[in-house]
# Entry
Amino acid sequence: MIIKATGLNPKPEGVRAPWFREAGFFDPLDLVQVKYEMLRHAREEGTNKADAAALFGLSRQTYYQAEAAFERDGMSGLLPRTRGPKSAHKLTGEVMRLVEEHLDANGQLQARSLADLVHARLGISVHPRSIERAVARKKKR
# Structure
């Protein structure tokens, strides 16, 4: 099983900067450090952005994204971020009221049929597992 660790450079062999090749402080596995040094190299050494990106094994697009993130958030902007929604954003109060109204009389959950009902009535596509988790969270409270 392969585990992807946050902040690890997936292509450390692409870093060609000589100071990263010597044993010591610079670590080609540390993606935050690689991005920071790429930005610093372009600013301080006057290297153009495309050459700096290539020297550090990254794309020009990655350079520009890192530059914007660094200007906006400083060092924390260079940390990897998880993508996608951070919460059950489709399960609004209206959706949950509809779900609760149509739970079986004994409180049994038919997530697939509830997802179909939500889609038919409200036009919102919700995964059945999302409904199961939302109902379980509500029961815990």
